[in-house]
Amino acid sequence: MNLVRAISAIGSMTMLSRVFGFARDILIANFLGAGTVADAFVVAFRFPNLFRRLFAEGAFAAAFVPMFSRSLEGEGADAAKTFAEHAFSLLAVILFVFVAAVEIAMPWLMPYLAPGFDNVPGKMEMATEFSRIAFPYLLFISLVALQSGVLNAFGKFSAAAAAPVLLNITLIVALLAFGGSDEESGRALVWGVFAAGIVQFIWLAWHCRRQGVRLRLGMPKLTDKVRTLGRRILPVVFGASLYQINLLIGTILATTISDGAVSYLYYADRVTQLPLGVVGIAVGTALLPMISRQLEAGDDGKANTSQNRGIEIALLLTVPAALALIVIPEPIIQVLFERGAFGADASEATALALMAYAIGLPAYVGIRVFTPGYFAREDTATPVRIAALAMVVNVVLNLVLMQSLGHVGIALASSVSAWLNILLLVAVLAKRGHYAPDARLMSRLLGIAGASAVMAGALWFAAAWAVPWLAGPIVEQVVALTVLVIGGLALYLIAARLFRVYSIAEIKGTLRRAR
């Protein structure tokens, strides 16, 4: 399994998903703006997404993928497929019961999820209705996560990485086909979320079948492996999902600040999701089965090398992205979202939140890259303890900073807690002798920092030049932002070459190995 090829496959599909995601969010901003209906949709969409990360991408995948990979490596494909089928049946039954219970309890849960919505007439009722429609998405997307884990363990990354593209396409179609007034558009979107879960499930089921794995739904069997899987899931439920939990806490508190605060944080988070998804998720997803197999083969040195190359690739792209979002947040938000129901005031408020989120972007990505070092060793408890401390810090900082900074304080608190999380993850892994940065990584980190600083300085001056263009028609705005982004990227690549972050010969060798 080639790390660069795996990251490229996941990253390219994630990039495609983010492109469609931006198109989706531009339409949402145009139809809904940043007010009552937009806030209700964000809460309805974020609720199942949180539990998706907890049950699926966070807890389930972190425990399931290493066990499935080791079974595949040590016992053969048939034993691994049987284990996957048992896990599939158990997960389906548990989630069906859970979804049914939440649907019934939604009117009583919503005042805790969005306490500030009571201040706007009809907003709480709308959020409850939207959430009931969207929540069954959790059932399908969690089963999709298991299917993705199976395919990733076989070294097949593209199909699973393409699933979010289907979500975004479905929401775009729902909005264009059934949208109208802001309330009609919001209702179309939540039904689109429901439909997207079914579409993604069918997509991954077909690809698993092509791989020779038919995950049939049967009576759950509590085999020894399934019991072990259950024990490993429980401690990681919160640990692997710090980012989403922090977002949920921030969303709950933002409902008490002002009408629109939830939407400002949502749109800002969507922009930071581009580098986080393309880089962090891609590297983390590729590393987990790779390190699991290397450790199963007894090659700890190779596992450490994979960890170093993973963080090197991640920071190579993430650090300049974070600095760019900090230096030119307003042009980015303005060009992407400022039209229709989304006005200049909303752009300014969202840009401030984007700056605060961008401060923590390298930490968010680092969490994705270093947690596989624990999960591959089947240690799901340690990241939980670290994440629990970081979440406490996040809540305290939220309550303190929102008093003076409003919604921006919520975004800043999330970034600070993420940095605490990643520093502790690295420190504990190193203390146990499971990770040591090599000379190549340390040298290139200095080069990445230098090249990123050069790019950020140039963007600072270029943004002042682009002000008249950014105040003009939409075509001029797009041209100005494109020049800033492409020019900044080109300058960063030139500076990175001068700082010896990469070499042409190394790129050619990597491409040959990937082929």
Structure in a nutshell:
The protein has helices at 3-32, 36-74, 77-113, 123-134, 137-153, 158-178, 182-210, 224-239, 242-254, 261-296, 300-327, 329-337, 344-359, 361-375, 382-405, 407-431, 439-465, 467-470, 474-498, 504-514.
Largest sheet: none
What's the β-strand tally?
A: 0
Q: What sort of overall outline do the alpha carbons produce when their principal axes are compared?
A: globular
- SS strand fraction: under 5%
Low-pLDDT residue intervals, each spanning 5 or more residues: none
In total, how many domains does the architecture comprise?
A: 2
Question: Tags for this entry?
Answer:
single chain; 515 residues; mainly alpha; 2 domains; 20 helices
What does this structure look like?
This protein has 515 residues and is mainly alpha-helical. The protein is built from 20 helices and no strands. The protein has two domains: 3-437, no CATH class; 439-515, no CATH class. Helix 2 packs parallel to helix 7. The model has no long low-confidence stretch (mean pLDDT 80).
Spell out the blueprint of helices and strands.
Blueprint: H1 3-32, H2 36-74, H3 77-113, H4 123-134, H5 137-153, H6 158-178, H7 182-210, H8 224-239, H9 242-254, H10 261-296, H11 300-327, H12 329-337, H13 344-359, H14 361-375, H15 382-405, H16 407-431, H17 439-465, H18 467-470, H19 474-498, H20 504-514
Helix pairs in contact: 1-6, 1-10, 2-3, 2-4, 2-5, 2-7, 2-8, 2-9, 2-10, 3-4, 3-5, 4-7, 5-6, 5-7, 6-7, 8-15, 9-15, 9-16, 10-11, 10-13, 10-14, 11-13, 11-14, 11-17, 12-13, 12-19, 13-16, 14-16, 15-16, 17-19
